[in-house]
Amino acid sequence: MTDIHETDVLIIGGGINGCGVFRDLSAQGVTCLLLERNDFCAGASAGSSRLMHGGLKYLETGEFRLVRESAEERNRLLRNAAHYVSPLPSLVPVRSRFGGLWASAARFFGMNARLDDRGGVILRLGLTLYDLYGRRFRSMPRHRMLGRRRLDALVAGLSPEIIGAGLYYEGRISHAERLGLELLLDGEEMHPASHALNHVEILGAEGGVISYRHGGAVHRVRPRAIVNAGGAWIDVVNDALGIPSRLMGGSKGAHLVVENPALLKALNGHMIYFGTADGRVNLLYPFMGRVLIGSTDHRIDHPDDAACSDDEADYLCAAVGEIFSAIPVTPEQIRHRFSGVRPLPRADGDIGMVTRDHSIVELELDSGIPVLCLIGGKWTTFRGFSEQAADRLLELTGRPRLRKTDDMQIGGGRDYPDAAGREAWIGRRADSSSLAPVRVGMLLSRYGTRLDRMLPELTGGETPLVHLPDYSREELEWLCRNERVITLADLLLRRTGIAISGDLTPEVAEEVAGIAAQVFGWDAAGKQAEIDALSPGACRVEAEPPVACVPR
Ligand SMILES: Cc1cc2nc3c(=O)[nH]c(=O)nc-3n(C[C@H](O)[C@H](O)[C@H](O)COP(=O)(O)OP(=O)(O)OC[C@H]3O[C@@H](n4cnc5c(N)ncnc54)[C@H](O)[C@@H]3O)c2cc1C
């Protein structure tokens, strides 16, 4: 056992909220230790619909504060993480002019009414309000209502009963898990005494000292304050700390990534955000050359049990049929499926009506050390939520706020070239390396300006993967050495888009495992164990024996 190590703040959980608090506090010179039991952003933060959005549907439940905050944070992310967050033109199809008036009013007043038709009038009202809430830092156009003819010119093949649509703009994030990691790396650079560790096991708390296992050794830390950023596992973490709680009530949501060229073509770059006959809201949009479809909403007792079931996959395929009746989506087209557990506050009744807003519950260890539990929140609002938590921790530790995070660019989003400067940026890197401009452009989209750190390793020439030539051996080796990769899943699911894009075949898993094995010194059994374990936590690649990835 090692000596007791002192730190200002211990953050348990490395989802987007833990990562956000880590960066904010580190920017203030507060020393943090973040401990994540799996990999960074492997929980709900990997299981989301990947929208950086204002939350149009929260207008229906009257959560105006949340809508305003989400819309402002979305607009900030478009600037601060421009390498990964981009505008997404979105359409809400309309089936009638006056549908949904009564149900919308009922939901607004907290009653449980089924809303399966949002008519043109109610939608126009909603989108007008939405524009209003999103006006600060606006960088995208206002909404427009479209009749069927103008809608057909944008998106072909919608079902005949759709009479028009509202066109508005959201943000989408391409590499959500990487952005979480970049927050941690930025935090460590700003304050080198702060550290973030993944694949850690919390062992317990005694007398204000927390024990944990990392890299085979047991360590002990005495923090001045603790942040429980365990998401849907907050109660489990509190149990481990010896302060039992019943704060959380998770809801599982599943997504599919499907290969359906007709659907991809029909979408023409748009998201369709649509109500289904069962009163739910679903979505689909182009994602990494395929189509992402989501999501379900089911109560779940334990977040470790989350997985996208065949029933959910069937439901999502069928839901698309309600708006594209002539473009069948079938289970054989599924290239990847994933699920996550929304860390919602415990509440009875319809899970769809539980608030998606965030809050902080303060508890205490026996020794008097404060424990701030971060409940709920959206991916989109992580910065604001982190700021709120950090402000409280600064107050508790008697430290001043030195820097704001509103305009702080993240990781590879720093000095990211805009459309006008992109070609010149790429040209300069292509000139100084052996890489073709098209390859530099591809890597810029993957890593933002962090590419400048990777590039020296690639200038000696790249060896494309046999089974996925868009990636190279040298690129993956650099990620293994520089980005806290511990397991094969870290590399395939979170440092790269290989799994989420639907490109993870058994052959790719085998080839990438071979590269990682050389970097980390895994023997044959170790390499096979990594391949077999490609289904960690609440967000997983579905196991399809004998290799744990979806075969094509
Ligand atoms: C289906 C679905 C769709 C969503 N869509 C969107 C969307 O489009 N846009 C949006 O803004 N938001 C969306 N969200 C919400 C958003 O993803 C979550 O609110 C957010 O990711 C929560 O982050 P978190 O850090 O609180 O939790 P998590 O990401 O779950 O992080 C908690 C972390 O704690 C770790 N942990 C657990 N136990 C321990 C322990 N004992 N020791 C150490 N670490 C531990 C876990 O491994 C995990 O990494 C969606 C969520 C879901 C599930």
What descriptors fit this protein?
single chain; 552 residues; alpha+beta; FAD/NAD(P)-binding domain; D-Amino Acid Oxidase, Chain A, domain 2; Helicase, Ruva Protein, domain 3; 10-stranded mixed sheet; 18 strands; disordered C terminus; binds flavin-adenine dinucleotide; FAD
What does this structure look like?
The chain has 552 residues and is of the alpha+beta class. The protein folds into 3 domains: 155 residues, FAD/NAD(P)-binding domain (3-Layer(bba) Sandwich), CATH 3.50.50.60; 217 residues, 2-Layer Sandwich (D-Amino Acid Oxidase, Chain A, domain 2), CATH 3.30.9; 114 residues, Orthogonal Bundle (Helicase, Ruva Protein, domain 3), CATH 1.10.8. The chain contains 17 helices and 18 strands. Strands 3, 4, 5, 6, 11, 12, 13, 14, 15 and 16 form a 10-stranded mixed β-sheet that branches. Strands 1, 2, 7, 8, 9, 10, 17 and 18 form an 8-stranded mixed β-sheet that branches. A hairpin with a 2-residue loop joins strand 9 and strand 10. Helix 1 runs parallel beside helix 6, helix 14 packs across helix 16 and helix 16 packs across helix 17. The protein is globular. The termini are far apart. The C terminus is likely disordered. Bound molecules: flavin-adenine dinucleotide (FAD). The site of flavin-adenine dinucleotide has 42 residues, from helix 1, helix 7 and strand 16.
Give the radius of gyration. Answer: 23 Å
Helix coverage percent of residues?
Answer: 25-40%
CATH homology superfamily of the largest domain: D-Amino Acid Oxidase, subunit A, domain 2
Q: Classify the secondary structure makeup into a structural class.
A: alpha+beta
